[in-house]
Design a protein that fits this description.
Structural class: alpha/beta
Radius of gyration: 27 Å
Strand order of the largest sheet: 1-9-8-7-10-11
Helix content: 40-55%
Order of helices and strands: HHEEEEHHEHEHEEEHHHHHHEHHEH
Largest sheet: 6 strands, mixed
Number of strands: 11
Distance between the termini: 109 Å
Number of helices: 15
Length: 487
C-alpha cells in the first residue's frame, strides 16, 4: 500500500513539474509574442510620424504642384487644378427661395432653402433623398437627367406656396456632384462618368446641356447655372457667411479641396476672365503625391492591391474610405505574427475594407473602463470574442496612429493652400471643412486643428480659421443657385 502511495505521489509530482514547465514555456512564448506586437506597433508609429518639419515639406510640395499645374496644361503635376463651372460666389446679400441638386452616385438630394440676406442662416430648408433605379443608372446620361428632372418637378409642386416671391422668368438650379464610394456606382457602364469638369471641358458643358434639355422637355422651369463638385458648393456656403472664406475641404469617404484664386495666377486659362478677377479652383488633391509622405508597408500593399495603383495616394492616406483598411492590415499582421487574437487568425480579419471609419472612430474614442466599446466592435466586425484589455489598448493605439497621421497631413494640405495664396502672414483666412470624417470623428478633427496651430505657431495661427460647413451636405448647390442670380 505504501509503495502504491509513493508511486502515485511521484507521478503526481512529475505531472505538476511537467505542467509547470509547460506553463513557463507558454508564458515565455506569450512574452515573446507580446514583445513582437510592441515592436510592430513602435515601428508603425515611427513610420507614420508627422513632425512639423515633415508637415512643412508636404505643404511646400503641394504649393509647388499647384503652381506647376496652374502654369500649364502640359505638366507632370499630380493635381488637375480645374477651373470650375461657376461664374461667381455668394456675397451674403442673396435673398429668396432657391433650389439645388446634389448627385451622389446611386442616389441624389433635392434641396430648397430660403436665404435671408445680410449673411443670415438658411431657413425653411427642405430636402429629399431619392434613389436612382438600377435600370436608370445603367442607361444613358439623358435618361438619368430625365429621371432627375421628373423628381425635381414633383418636389417643387409639393412645396407649399414657395413661388410667391419667385420671378416669373426661368429659375436657376445649382447642381453639385459628390463622388460615389460604391465602386459599382462609378463603373464604366453607368450613366455618369464620375470625374470633375472644368469650365472649358466640353464633356462637362455637354452634360449641363443634357440636364437643361431634360428640364425643358418636362416643362420644369429651371436652368442649371453651376455644375461642380461638392467641395466648391461647400466653398460657396462659406463665402455666403464670410467674405474671408477662401477655401473648402471635403473630408469624408473621399476628399478634395477647392479655393479662390486670382485670375492672373492661372496662366493656362485662355477664356474670359471673371469680372471679380476671382476663379474657383478644384485642386483634385486626392491625386496629390509627394516623396515626403510618411508611407508604410501597409500603405504600399493597400495601394498595390487597389484598383488604381500609384494613384490617389493622398486620398489613401487621409480619407475615411481607407483609414479603417490601414488599421485592419496592421491588426492582421499582428494576428499572423504575434497571435494577438489567439493562435488562430480570425477569418474575417482577412476581408479587405471590412473595418469602416465610423467603427474605427468608435474604438479610438472609447473611454469606457477596459475599452468595452473596442471589445464590442471587435466582436461585431471581426467576430473576435476573446480580446483582453491589453489587446484592446493595442487596437486603440493603432487607430490613434492612423488617424493622427491622416489628420495632420490634411492640416498640412490646408496650410499649403493658404501659403499658395500668400495669406499666412498678412490676412485672416477662413477654411470650411465638411464631411463625416471631420464632423463626427472628434479626435481626427482635434488632430487636424492642432497640426495647423503647430505649423503656424502662436504668432500666425489666428490667421487661419477652420470652420465646419454651413447647412450640411448638398446645400452648396442652393448657395450657388443664389449667387448666379445675383451675378
Amino acid at each position: 500500500m505504501r509503495k502504491e502511495v509513493g508511486v502515485v505521489a511521484v507521478a503526481t509530482a512529475a505531472t505538476i513539474v511537467a505542467a509547470a514547465a509547460l506553463f513557463r514555456q507558454w508564458k515565455r512564448r506569450k512574452e515573446r509574442q507580446w514583445k513582437q506586437t510592441q515592436r510592430i506597433l513602435r515601428k508603425f508609429a515611427r513610420d507614420c510620424a508627422t513632425p512639423v518639419p515633415k508637415l512643412w515639406q508636404v505643404a511646400n510640395a503641394l504649393v509647388s504642384d499647384m503652381q506647376s499645374s496652374l502654369a500649364s496644361n502640359e505638366t507632370s503635376s499630380n493635381l488637375n487644378m480645374l477651373v470650375s463651372y461657376v461664374a461667381s460666389l455668394p456675397t451674403g446679400a442673396e435673398e429668396g427661395l432657391y433650389y439645388g441638386v446634389n448627385l451622389r452616385g446611386a442616389n441624389f438630394l433635392i434641396l430648397c432653402a430660403r436665404l435671408g440676406g445680410k449673411n443670415k442662416p438658411l431657413s425653411d430648408l427642405r430636402r429629399e433623398e431619392i434613389s436612382v433605379p438600377s435600370n436608370v443608372m445603367l442607361g444613358t446620361t439623358q435618361e438619368l437627367f430625365d429621371f432627375i428632372a421628373l423628381e425635381l418637378a414633383k418636389f417643387v409642386s409639393a412645396q407649399p406656396g414657395n413661388d410667391n416671391d419667385a420671378p416669373a422668368s426661368q429659375k436657376k438650379l445649382g447642381f453639385t456632384l459628390s463622388y460615389p464610394v460604391d465602386q459599382a456606382a462609378a463603373s464604366p457602364g453607368t450613366a455618369i462618368k464620375w470625374k470633375s469638369f472644368s469650365a472649358d471641358d466640353m464633356v462637362g458643358k455637354e452634360l449641363v446641356n443634357d440636364i437643361n434639355r431634360s428640364l425643358e422637355k418636362l416643362g420644369v422651369n429651371f436652368r442649371v447655372v453651376s455644375f461642380v463638385d461638392d467641395a466648391i458648393g461647400n466653398l460657396a456656403g462659406g463665402r455666403y457667411y464670410n467674405r474671408e472664406s477662401v477655401a473648402s475641404v471635403t473630408l469624408g469617404m473621399t476628399t478634395n479641396a477647392a479655393y479662390v484664386e486670382q485670375s492672373h495666377a492661372v496662366p493656362r486659362w485662355h477664356g474670359m476672365s471673371p469680372k471679380s478677377e476671382e476663379m474657383v479652383i478644384s485642386t483634385e488633391w486626392r491625386n496629390f503625391n509627394s516623396v515626403h509622405f510618411p508611407l508604410t508597408e501597409f500603405d504600399a500593399s493597400l495601394d498595390a492591391e487597389s484598383s488604381n495603383p500609384g494613384s490617389k495616394i493622398f486620398e489613401k492616406l487621409i480619407s475615411g474610405m481607407y483609414l479603417g483598411e490601414i488599421v485592419r492590415r496592421v491588426l492582421l499582421k499582428m494576428a499572423q505574427e504575434t497571435a494577438l487574437f489567439g493562435d488562430c487568425v480570425p477569418s474575417k480579419l482577412n476581408t479587405p475594407f471590412l473595418l469602416r471609419s465610423p467603427d474605427m472612430a468608435a474604438m479610438h474614442q472609447d473611454t469606457s473602463e477596459d475599452r468595452k466599446v473596442v471589445s464590442e466592435k471587435l466582436e461585431e466586425v471581426f467576430g473576435i470574442t476573446n480580446s483582453t484589455p491589453m489587446v484592446r489598448e493595442v487596437v486603440a493605439e493603432v487607430c490613434d496612429i492612423v488617424s493622427e497621421r491622416g489628420a495632420r497631413l490634411a492640416g498640412a494640405g490646408i496650410v499649403g493652400i493658404i501659403k499658395k495664396l500668400g495669406r499666412i502672414e498678412t490676412r485672416r483666412s477662413v477654411v470650411t471643412v465638411e464631411g463625416g470624417l471631420y464632423e463626427h470623428y472628434r479626435v481626427f478633427r482635434n488632430y487636424l486643428n492642432s497640426s495647423v496651430w503647430e505649423m503656424l505657431g502662436n504668432d500666425l495661427s489666428d490667421n487661419v480659421v477652420i470652420e465646419p460647413s454651413h447647412g450640411g451636405s448638398g446645400t452648396g448647390a442652393v448657395f450657388l443657385a443664389a449667387s448666379q442670380i445675383h451675378s
